Amino acid sequence: MAAEQRQIQLINLDQELATLWDKEQGQNRTRACLFNLVIYTQKAHRDQFYKELIKSVISKYPCRVIWITSDDTAKEPYLRSSVASETIGEGSQQIFCEIIHIEVAGKLSERVPYIILPQIVPDLPVYLLWTQDPATENAILPALEPFAYRIIFDSEASVDLQEFSHSVLSLINRFHCEVGDLNWTALSGWRKTVSSVFDTPKMLAYLSQSRLIQITYNKVGSNHFQHSEFEAAYMQGWLAAQLGWEFKKIEKSEGNLRLTYRTPTQEIAILLIPQEVSTLPPGAMLNLEIESAQDKAHFVFQRKPESRQIFVQYSDQNRCDLPFYASIPGMAEGQEIIEEIFYHHPGTHYRNTLGLLATIPWKEAL
User: Fold this and answer.
1) What are 69-80's pLDDT values in tens digits?
2) Cα separation of 58 and 60, whole Å?
3) Is the Cβ–Cβ distance between 5 and 83 less than 8 Å?
4) Domains, the chain, ordered by start
């Protein structure tokens, strides 16, 4: 993969893009674009992570990338731009893609939509990856939303999961486009696996009568991730929301987060337990263990770090079934953005989960 980058004036964007392509003539390269990918990030926040993410997307699906970097720490407003060309593939199968980078600070951010919109390739969908906390006021998001086919949020950028959930729910009701979430997508394989086990009225009754659920997640250190508990929080929120449990309280207990829910007949405790596994990404789900009051049923879902498989075992007071392995469906870790773009299926489960997470004061317990 080759890359070239130049600093330019804003008024020269079209000219510089044309110049980049002219240089590729006669080199067996094809200019291709399947969609527009607009990314909004904060300066110095996970820069390397998003650079790798962009390369990952382009390497599989050529597109035009427009990357906006906002600087909230700058003392003076500024507006700069650069263009880059990325070439993927080898030999006669090389694909040429373009990246437009906009750097902005202060009040000049109001001009960004007017710079971006003419650079969007017409008649192709626009996917907007928004990595700023949606609870923060921003002039760019409302201006770009009418042109987006889907807006994908990254809850890792939020300060408070409760406020994030409130904000995204509000935006879902206001926006005309579809809304996605990287952490929600990262859990799609686990949700499908759990759903496949509790797929009969009898098995669902065991889940409904849960008295203790333990969710273990990966809290390995990383400069790119500050909220490794978020995927586990989404998982418990999904279970509680779909089963109609009412949130009662959250507290920190022996280094774990303990959430208490209630039904008309009982209370349910859910523990979020951190563990370090260096071979898996931060925040990844490791284990799910469910103890039910009905027949003393016990379910174990255990991730195998060396593969995309989950070990599943069931036992109760009368029997112990043979364990089995289930492959985790969906894209591999780190490919959530690709799954959101091409395989996303919006539904009520995400809204229900956000609605429940919006009732939990996460910030007080962390």
Assistant:
1) 999 888 888 899
2) 5
3) yes
4) 2-148 (no CATH), 186-365 (3.30.360)
